[in-house]
Amino acid sequence: MKVILSAVSKGENGQNLPETSLSYESGRVTLAVVETAQRPTLLALMATGRMAPDAGTITFDGEPDSEALRASTTIVDAPDASEHVGDLKLTAVVQEELMFAGLPSGRAATLRAIDELDATEYATWQLTNIPVAVRLHVLGELAAARPGIRGLVLTTPDRHGGDPAEWWPTAAEFARRGLAVLLIVSHATADDLRGEVEALESERLAALAAAAEEQRLAELARLAELEAESAALAAEPAPAPVSASASPTAATAATADTASTAAPESKERA
Asked: Which of the 8 DSSP states describes residue 15?
C-alpha cells in the first residue's frame, strides 16, 4: 500500500497544521517532522483518513478513498487521539488493546499476551513509567494485530524521553514485516534517525534486488529445462511405417477370408 499526502494543511492559512507533503508505503519507515503538541496528532489523523484536510489531497493506492485508508491503518499512541491514560497499569492497557483487535481479552489472555510481548516484568507498572522502547513495542504490536491493518502511524514516541536508538529497532522491524510505517517526530529526533532510515531503505532495496535476481535465475533455469526437453523430443527417431501386409490385423483378416471361402467348397464336395 502507498499513502500520499499532497500539500495538506489544517486551519486558516495552515495555522493548525502548515502545508505538508509526504508519502509512506509498505516496507518502509517515513519520517515526518512536526513540532508543537497538537500538530502531530492532526497529521496522524489525516494520514490515516480519520480527518479531512482543509486544503490538499490524500490518496490511498492512487485513489481518494478515506474509508479504505481508515480500514488499513491505525494510529499508535497519539496525544488526545489514541494515547491511554498514563496512570493505567499495563495489564489494563493491553486488555483494552486486545478488545480493539477483536482478540480474547480475559485475564489469562491478557497476561499471556504481555508475556508473548516480553513485558511481564512491567505488567503491574503504570503506563507512564514504562520504558519508551517497551511502550512502543507493546502498543505497536497490539495495533498491528487488528484485522486488516497494513500501516502504522507512530506518533511522537520521542515525547516520552529516552534515546531514539532504543526504540528505533521496533519501528524498523514493523517495516521489515511489510507494514507501512509513518514515524512522526521532532527535528532533533529526525536528525538522530536519518542515518538509520537510510540504512533501512538500502536494506530494503537490496532485498528487492536479491528477490528479483532470484526470480530471474529461476525463470532462466525453467527456460533451459524446457529447451532441453524440446531438444530431446526432436532427437528421438521417427517410428518406422508399418505396411498393410505386415499388419497383424491385415493378416488375421486375410486368414478369415480364406477360411470363409473354403468352407462352402468343403460342403459341396461332401
From this structure: S
Q: Please report the beta strands in the chain, taking only residues with DSSP state E, as ranges in sequence order.
A: 2-10, 17-25, 29-33, 55-60, 73-76, 151-155, 180-185
Q: Of the candidates 131, 189, 120, which has an alpha carbon nearest to the alpha carbon of residue 160?
A: 131
Cα distance between residue 155 and residue 140, in whole Å: 11
Residue 125 buriedness (CB in 10 A; 0-12 / 13-18 / 19+): middle
> Minimal CA–CA distance to 48: which of 174, 151, 148?
151
Q: What is the DSSP letter of 168?
A: H
Question: Which residue's C-alpha cell is 478515506?
Answer: 66
- The three-class DSSP label of residue 212 is helix
The torsion region of residue 191 among left (phi > 0), alpha (psi -120 to 50) and beta comes to alpha
Q: Indicate the pTM of the whole model.
A: 0.81
CB proximity list for 24: less than 8 A, separation 6 or greater: 2, 3, 30, 47, 151, 180, 181, 182
What tens digit of pLDDT does each residue of 205-235 get? 898 899 899 999 999 999 998 988 888 888 8
Amino acid at 42: L
The amino acid at 232 = A
Place of cell 495495533: 143
Residue 159's CB is within 10 A of a number of other CB atoms, namely: 15
User: How open is the CA angle 31-8-82, to the nearest 5 degrees?
Assistant: 60
Q: In this predicted model, what pLDDT tens digit does every residue of 101-142 receive, in sequence order? A: 999 999 999 999 999 999 999 999 999 999 999 999 999 999
Helix, strand, or coil (residue 233): helix
Residue corresponding to grid cell 494543511: 9
